[in-house]
Amino acid sequence: MEIYKNRRMLTGAALLCTFALTLSVLPVHATDSIESLESQTSALENELAGINQDILDLSNQISDTEMQIEILNSSIDKTQDDLLDAEEKENKQYEDMKTRIKYMYENGNASLLEMLFSAKNMTDFLNKADFIENLSDYDRQALTQLQDIHQEIADQKEDLENQQASMQSLSEQLKSKQTELQAKAVATSTDLDTVNAKLKKAKEEEAARLAEEARQRAAAEAAAKKDNAGQVDGTGGGTITTDGTTVSADDLTLLAAIIQCEAHYNYESMLAVATVIMNRVESSRFPNSISGVVYANGQFAPVWTGSLKRVLSQGPGTLSRQVAQDAINGSRLAAVSDCYFFLYAPSTSRSGVVIGDNVFFTSW
């Protein structure tokens, strides 16, 4: 009987050893592999989120750049019209001067002497002499002034065209970068799918391993219980059981200057521009100050071209200041009361409300 008990104990010990040996040969790197794959998944998800955010930021930059290009195109068209107007005035002044010179040449100095000697007294003589001299000086000064204006407008047009080329180049660079990021997002998404598939397989293998361990553990425990039961009843039988807005004076001057640059000298056109600016100040989509709105990147061409700076240095006109003060006091042009943008009307096909030379619209 004692020998039989010892034999049963040796059998149980052998089963436990076999179970331990079986566990020792199963893969021990499964958990590490899952942790590694989960770490890779997290890193790829963060990278993909970053790429998508970069794509969104680039899309916003591209939209802003395209808006600035359209504004520049509008300013170039307006400057071209101003240049043509200056050329017409210059040519007319030149033709008028040639007519006077031709008259003087054909009639000789006699007509001038006649004018001088027809003087009734010395005062009249000096007045006629001054008139002849002033007429000549006027022609020279008027022509020089027109030529200067013509050159200033031509320089401004060249500056705008250079800015336009720069903005178009920037837009192309941003679109190229956006394409690269989109390709990178696709590649990262593919890598993420691959890692997720590996992670799923690793988890399935881990579950199978744990299930096999549980099965073998249950078998060993059952065998041990069977041995213990045999020791109790001496027959080897038994059963198995398991456990279950304040506005400053500087802002007033700035508002007056920008509306003077953007609109002709009539009250309605200026108030329309002022209405758009004040609409932006009062909207959460734009800066909440006049200076913030005016100097916002790429919004008003006079800021880039230097026109605004010149008007500020000279001081805005009386009408401009009056319109600015009225706008600050609450006056709005009803026709554009819901507008936030405008462009030089002859340069765009956009629909909207035309006031003066500008077309006003609600959204870009």
UniProtKB/TrEMBL annotation:
Q: Where is the composition biased (Basic and acidic residues)?
A: 213-228
Task: Specify where the region named Disordered lies, as residue ranges.
Answer: 213-243
Q: Can the keyword Coiled coil be found in this entry's annotation?
A: yes
Any Pfam family: Hydrolase_2
What are the boundaries of the signal sequence? 1-30
User: Which residue numbers delimit the Peptidoglycan hydrolase PcsB coiled-coil domain?
Assistant: 86-155
In which domain of life is the source organism classified? Answer: Bacteria
Give the record's keywords alphabetically. Coiled coil, Hydrolase, Signal
**What InterPro entries does this protein map onto?**
Cell_wall_hydrolase_SleB (IPR011105), PcsB_CC (IPR057309), SleB_dom1 (IPR042047)
Does the keyword Signal belong to this entry?
yes
> Any idea which GO molecular function terms this record carries?
hydrolase activity
**Per the database entry, which stretches of residues form a coiled coil?**
34-89
Which segments cross the bilayer? none
The Cell wall hydrolase SleB domain sits at 267-345
Q: What is this protein called?
A: Cell Wall Hydrolase
Protein's organism: [Ruminococcus] lactaris ATCC 29176
- Provide the organism lineage as a comma list: Bacteria, Bacillati, Bacillota, Clostridia, Lachnospirales
